[in-house]
């Protein structure tokens, strides 16, 4: 019985530890987004108005004063971070003509909520835009036990879509 309990505990910790990590580098994400030809880096500086909108989305002050993005024609790519529970989640977002084409978790550092990295979850963001109140125009189903990670990805999606509208 003791061995079985130790095995269960070991599996639990292995699962949590293996969830953390880098799933794709930002450079590889950008190469994929732009078929190997990464456009030059651009930046959006946060004006007072943009900072207020982003603060409203995040429900805290942003830790950045500019956001980097890459653009080729009507396609933009964004690499953004947001805290899940305690640590940042790095997410890549590809937007074309005001709609998300792909949202991908690039790095995950938490011990819980890692399920958001899977395509079954991130596919929900495909073809989503935002309305005039900076809310996603389609609902995103949550994942039990990953509430804070789900919220972080929804915030990132909203910020990327909002900033893309400001270009």
What does this structure look like?
The protein is an alpha+beta fold and 167 residues long. The protein has one domain (2-165). The chain is 36% helix and 25% strand. The protein has helices spanning 2-19, 26-33, 48-58, 119-122, 147-165; strands at 21-22, 41-45, 66-72, 75-83, 88-96, 99-108. It has a 6-stranded antiparallel sheet with strand order 1-6-5-4-3-2, with helices on both faces. A hairpin with a 2-residue loop joins strand 5 (88-96) and strand 6. Helix 3 runs antiparallel to helix 5. It is globular and about 60 Å long.
Q: Detail the poorly predicted runs.
A: 10-18
Q: Describe the sheet with the most strands.
A: 6 strands, antiparallel
The level of helicity is 25-40%
The proportion of residues in beta strands is: 25-35%
Given helix and strand content, the structural type is alpha+beta
Q: What shape does the CA trace take? A: globular
In total, the number of strands is 6
- Summarize the helix and strand pattern as letters: HEHEHEEEEHH
In angstroms, what separates the terminal alpha carbons?
62 Å
Number of helices: 5
- Cα-atom radius of gyration: 17 Å
Number of domains: 1
| Average of per-residue pLDDT values | 91
In spatial order, strands of the major sheet run 1-6-5-4-3-2
